[in-house]
Amino acid sequence: MAGMCEINGGLNVEQCRARRGKYRRGNAVVFVGMMLPVMCGFIALAVDYGFLLYIRADLQRSADHAVLAAVRDLEPSFDGSQDLDQVRATLREFAQLNAGAAISILDNDIQIGRFNPLTVYTELELLDDGVFDTVVLTLRRDDLANSSVSLFFAKLFGNQTTGVSVTSTAV
């Protein structure tokens, strides 16, 4: 190729460029053909991931509202007792108001107890004695409760659904 454009061969610069371009025809088509599936894969990943983030944010908002409403019901009555059934009912009511009536909350996903201040920088620990002041709620869309999130493009790669769960705590 280098010998084709020698000046002493009688070719000027314009002729050399024209002759070199003749052998490059179709390179863009091959490149686009190779990159198109890769680009479609990234677009599919972005759409599915964005949808999962949307579902997660919606569940987190609903869980946050529910625990904030329920922690108010932990106020002890005049005799010092606390109505934990009312707290659970408030959790379920506000979660369904925010996430939709179809959301179901498992009993194991509700934790009520007294906040242990020694575990503030580690994993949260709830104590079972004293006046309860903390509510922890886990909302989920997975195989345990509610339906798993159906994906759009990941079905092409064999991944039909995935689970999403969030946890919210109010003290």
Question: What key attributes describe this structure?
Answer:
171 residues; alpha+beta; 4-stranded antiparallel β-sheet; two-stranded antiparallel ribbon; 3 helices; 6 strands; 16% strand; elongated
Describe the structure.
- The strands form 2 sheets. Strands 2-1-3-6 form a 4-stranded antiparallel sheet, covered by helices on one side. The chain has a two-stranded antiparallel sheet with strand order 4-5.
- With 171 residues, the protein is of the alpha+beta class.
- The protein has helices at 13-22, 27-71, 84-99; strands at residues 110-115, 126-127, 134-141, 149-150, 161-162, 164-170.
- Helix 2 packs antiparallel against helix 3.
- The mean pLDDT is 84.
- It starts with 12 loop residues before the first helix and ends with a strand.
- It is elongated and about 110 Å long.
- It is built from 3 helices and 6 strands; from the N terminus they run αααββββββ.
Strand order of the largest sheet: 2-1-3-6
Sheet with most strands: 4 strands, antiparallel
Strand content: 15-25%
Rg estimate, integer Å: 31 Å
Helix content, binned percent: 40-55%
**First-residue to last-residue Cα separation:** 76 Å
Mean pLDDT: 84
Give the number of helices.
3
User: What structural class do the secondary elements suggest?
Assistant: alpha+beta
Shape: elongated
The secondary-structure element order is HHHEEEEEE
| DSSP strand tally | 6
Low-confidence segments, given as residue ranges, are none
Overview in brief:
The chain is α+β, with helices and mostly antiparallel strands. Helix content is 42%, strand content 16%.
